[in-house]
Amino acid sequence: MSDIDTSQFLIKTEPYYRPVGNEVEQYAAAYDVRMPVMLKGPTGCGKSRFVEYMAWKLQRPLITVACNEDMTASDLIGRFLLDINGTKWQDGPLTVAARIGAICYLDEVVEARQDTTVVIHPLTDHRRQLPLEKKGELVNAHPDFQVVISYNPGYQSMMKDLKQSTKQRFGAMSFDYPTTDTEVEIVSHEAGVDLKTAERLVQVAQRSRNLKGHGLDEGMSTRLLVYAGQLIAKNIAPQAACQMALVEPLTDDPDMRDTLQAAVSTFFPEVSDSSKDKVA
């Protein structure tokens, strides 16, 4: 029996999530059969928020791991640590999730080395087991345990991709940026701005997304639009807010920054004049 306080991993309040299809029903069905789930989509499109929402809806603990290229298998499953009494085993987040029946969410899993991600294999097939070889223990996953992974297909390469032996252990769901009306609603709600301002921000983002592969690796995400809206809600001039939240994070290329700022000026043309009036 685990003595871990599972309540610390529960989502206490309902996260705001606006369904765009039948993804909620699909995920719930997958969880009912404890199917591992893979979420694919561009950065900032709502994958992580969706996982949080489903953990809340299903009333399951959620343990999130932000994967990176320096992460080792021990970072996931655990290691022996030195303390005043000698050595002590410390479970990693994957092991904790397996013991308590949490949803273990591996965010941007392709960032981790392939020799690290293979440790999830025995947990994502009929065995549902996690061998702790250094400890000499075989952890049988709690009946409520589930693995969820996410990644951005746009950042894939031969060096950063999932093995087929990993991919084919998961059901997959594809995400994308919402339709215009839905994205406007999301930005307005999350940022606390009026619908007109949210609509203009979405129009700027759509211009940038058309530049993907033509100077930009990725267009402006819904997340960045919320950041810009939050600045505007704090009385930052829209052009300045967009410069900070939308343009500067996206590129270091001066010409591309000018192109994006021109798109901002197209949809917020009155800002420079009104801001001068305020100063005066």
Automatic annotation (TrEMBL):
Q: Which family, according to UniProt? A: Belongs to the CbbQ/NirQ/NorQ/GpvN family.
Which residues are in the CbbQ/NirQ/NorQ C-terminal domain? 183-266
User: InterPro entries per the record?
Assistant: ATPase_dyneun-rel_AAA, CbbQ/NirQ/NorQ/GpvN, CbbQ_C, P-loop_NTPase
Question: One Pfam family name from the record?
Answer: AAA_5
Q: Where is the ATPase dynein-related AAA domain?
A: 36-170
The UniProt record lists the keyword Glycoprotein: no
Which species is this record about? Thioclava arctica
Gene3D superfamilies assigned: P-loop containing nucleotide triphosphate hydrolases
Q: Which UniProt keywords apply?
A: ATP-binding, Nucleotide-binding
Query: Under which name does UniProt file this protein?
Result: CbbQ/NirQ/NorQ/GpvN family protein
